[in-house]
Amino acid sequence: MEHKLPELPYAKDALAPHISAETLEYHYGKHHQTYVDTLNKMLPDSEFKEASLEDIIKQAPAGKLFNQAAQVWNHTFYWNSMSPKGGKDPSGDLGKAIDDAFGSADELRKQFNEKAVGNFGSGWTWLVVNKSGKLEVVNTDDAGNPLQDDLKPILTCDVWEHAYYIDYRNARPKYLEAFWQLVNWDFAARNFGG
Predict the structure, then answer these.
(1) Inter-axis angle of helices 105-118 and 92-102, nearest 10
(2) Where does this protein hold Mn(2+) (predicted)?
(3) Residue 1's pLDDT is what?
């Protein structure tokens, strides 16, 4: 099975001024594309040549094949976690679940930011549904993905430096402020309800 770089759900300049078109040129156009290309080169000689990204993430041993598949999946999920019409506060069932788990959307943002800023090195910060059915914020390192631990991803923020270095240099907290202006709560609500 050949994997393709999915289309962005918006134009490359649509997230400006929070995330620039230049960042998307590199992050989506170069980094994400390279993960797809490398994965496709590895698959023909692999037992996972017909597997979905999710199956590779859940079943492949740690190593290069897992890393490529997870980074393809993680980045696609990340692009969809943002929208030019994003921000504000969540509503509906997801909003209620956030209030139940964290007390408020503001407290979720605070806890999420603390985890993301404290995520040492490269990785991802996720809002997930845990095994007891409650919302939780978790970090993964490198290409790690909550699917490995039977957690249900709702929303993610990429905290690898290539996600923010062009626009924010090494100021990860400033990047997180911008991220919350773009959060696609409709996408998160679909993941929560689906």
Answers:
(1) 70
(2) 27, 75, 158, 162
(3) 86
